[in-house]
Amino acid sequence: MKQYNAIKAKHPDALLLFRVGDFYETFGEDAIKAAQILGIVLTHRNNGGDQTELAGFPHHSLNTYLPKLVKAGQRVAICDQLEDPKQTKSIVKRGVTELVTPGVALNDDILNAKSNNFLAAVHFGRNKLGIAFLDISTGEFLTSEGSVEQMDKLLQNFSPNEVLISKNHRTEFTSYYGNRWHPYFLEDWIFQEDYAQESLTNLFKTKSLQGFGVNHLQEGIIASGAILHYLSETQHRQLQHINRLQRIAEEDYIWMDRFTIRNLELYHSTNENAITLLEVIDKTISPMGGRLLKRWLALPLKSKEKIEFRNRIVSHLKSEENTLEKLRHWMKQMGDLERLISKVATGKITPKEMVQLKNSLEVIVPVKQLTAQGESEALRELGNGLSECEALRGKIKQMLNEDAPMSIGKGQTIADGYSEELDELRQLAFSSKDYLDKMLERETEATGITSLKIASNNVFGYYIEVRNTHKDKVPESWIRKQTLVNAERYITEELKEYETKILGAEERILSLEEQLFEQLLVWMQEYIPDVQRNAKIIAQLDCLCGFAQLARENHYVQPEITNSTVLEIREGRHPVIEKQLPLGEIYITNDVLLDREEQQIIMITGPNMSGKSAILRQTALIVLLAQMGSFVPAVSAKIGVVDKIFTRVGASDNISMGESTFMVEMNETASILNNLSERSLVLLDEIGRGTSTYDGISIAWAISEYLHEHPSRAKILFATHYHELNDMTQSFERIKNYNVSIKELKDNVLFLRKLVPGGSEHSFGIHVAKMAGMPQQVIQKANKILKKLEQSHSNEEVGNKLQAVQGEMQLSFFNLDDPLLEEIKEEILHLDIDTLTPVEALMKLNEIKRLLSKKKKASS
């Protein structure tokens, strides 16, 4: 316990798994946590006089229990025995061999194959924030710096599992970014520029960071240095696979704020059963491809050339079905190259995984050949970067047994014929049966005992067993070891010598295999960059094959990407909604044309439920898909490269943070108005509905006017149910009215979901209420009020009319000149509904019913 306490003191904030014999034990507070998370038994033990809680599990179950602890947000320190208990007379030396945290994990059971496991660090500089992201399982290391909003967007995009922050900035971080991330607070001295520069240049073995293009990112470098410090703290020092630091060049990608990412439901949805865009478009089949697709979705391109490069490959693969199928067939057989080579660097790879790495690299050969065939120059260019790694594959094939085990010692790791010494030792260890059979034959003949048996046990190794009926024939040179009821067991000199030889051979085999495997690992280090490059190209190829497959399955077309600012979509569809329609129902397509000269702002009116929001969202999603390099759900699409997409959709409440719906709406809209550019696409849905009608109309009008007069002339889609905004076209030439058409039947309404020119006359909200099953009485009352209101438009009149309507159409339950009804009315008005129990309510209702039935009898 003294030893345990000393080690625990060094890692006070980690849950310590302490190796004792064949178990990992946890003590005290750790044991209580572990028992709760893992559902294992919590016991007590008296250690040094105090009663201590204790919970443990067998050491071979580590891979079952460790992921559960880490996923529950625990930092876990694994403390192993550092020497063989047989070799020491005193207490076994122990020490922490690895610290696994939510952001630093190499264990496959903790990692999600299609998601990165990022560790982030945020540094609060004087004027800006620096940020860095590292996935130790793939070697990706990225950095950037900028404003609070930019960092917020990057945190959203990269979704780190753990964020490092200086203790001094704990409150700032929480006030800016809430409690969504797993924060871990480091000492302030770690966030120093010279310390960071030194850590990074030591890792990359360079004199400066100039070659990585990050030299000017002072705050970003400090954040990157903090990550490296944390890795050494968590005992991760073999980092050859982290060989470059990349800048996240935000100017190359579409800017979307966090509201837009949330509103468009790219990765997550607030509704439980909703499907996200990622789920619809993800046709990747390799883990590397799945991770890259998320990155492409978070960072769609702004460069026409880069988008067209991807488009050319997708177009070729879509038309060459045979090539597409073959590529997908081969990539399906590939393991996670990126994570396997990282395990080589960190020394965590098993023999079985090493064979898997070799087999994955073998698949590169047919893939490279397929990319070289056919007309597509772009595909050839991408495939040219693939390295066949012949020497690496050859070496692994020569050294390792094809059926290598998960760990050395659990089967044959090194192949036959690689090491003469190893082959001889194996011969000795495995030919023991023949040798013992011959010895048995010899001794049977010499002694004349027919029922001799040679066997072995753990107590005294090999022995000869003689039945009691023959024990008088036993030679004097045999040494008796054990007496059984009807037999005796003996050992001989020859048997003892042979046993020593066999046991020695098995131990030597194990140490030789470990030694040779270690040599292979060291030799492979220089191939890490080649394999990483292969993994990156395969990921791109997988994403592009996925896009081609998506286009084939869903009839997507190639968009025309231009440098103009015009957006023209013919018969566009919503990629997610069209997948959720009932069988046999087709999606109603729509055209959208936006430019900066004639039709800059489209004002869409129409009833709720008619599909206004779907049209807004599908326009943004089509632009996003196009700029990711995918084909799009439309008959044709001409897309002038967009640089920012802003959305303000519905009431995305922040009430939990104490802000009103309207306040949130105004904050989000203000952020849009202050960040416009001429290539921006803005989608506004129901602005101003969080306040009173006339306030709402005034704000919506003022915002539309501002957007129309703004020098950027950004492209705007504005959905509203304020029909008063239709009048704006008379004063503003670039605002055009459209409405989502409907068909009126006798007393019902049919939503056609088609966008047509012209404003909508009225709202049909009452029809929607009727469809939702609102009581008939409420519908009738609403219709009467509507008719009255429609006859008036002026503000005062509305007020007076409403008063009049209210008086005239009191829901007539009572004829109030009746004294009995007056009495019942008083009774009801004085009821305290909040404190009334259901039984009391029923009794009260019964009483009123009785009074009324008395009146009925009296009047009849």
Going by helix content, strand content and strand pairing, the class is alpha/beta
Q: What fraction, in percent, of the residue positions are helical?
A: 40-55%
CATH class membership of the largest domain: Mainly Alpha
Rg calc? 38 Å
The count of β-strands is 27
The whole-number mean of residue pLDDT values reads: 86
Q: Low-confidence spans: pLDDT under 50, at least 5 residues? A: 652-658, 794-799, 805-814
The CATH architecture name of the largest domain reads: Orthogonal Bundle
Shape: globular
Tell me the fraction of residues in β-strands, as a range: 15-25%
Ordered list of secondary-structure elements with their pairings:
Elements: H1 2-10, E1 15-20, E2 23-27, H2 28-38, E3 43-47, E4 50-58, H3 62-71, E5 76-81, E6 94-100, E7 119-124, E8 129-135, E9 140-146, H4 148-158, E10 162-166, H5 170-177, E11 183-186, H6 193-204, H7 218-233, E12 246-247, E13 255-256, H8 258-263, H9 277-281, H10 287-298, H11 304-319, H12 321-332, H13 337-346, H14 351-372, H15 377-384, H16 390-399, H17 420-430, H18 432-447, E14 453-457, E15 461-467, E16 479-483, E17 487-491, H19 493-524, H20 528-554, E18 560-562, E19 567-572, E20 590-594, E21 601-605, H21 612-628, E22 636-640, E23 644-649, H22 661-673, E24 680-685, H23 693-709, E25 715-719, E26 735-744, E27 749-757, H24 765-771, H25 776-790, H26 795-808, H27 819-829, H28 838-859
Parallel strand pairs: 1-5, 7-10, 9-12, 10-11, 13-23, 18-22, 21-25, 21-26, 23-24, 24-25
Antiparallel strand pairs: 1-2, 2-4, 3-4, 5-6, 7-8, 8-9, 14-15, 15-17, 16-17, 19-20, 19-22, 26-27
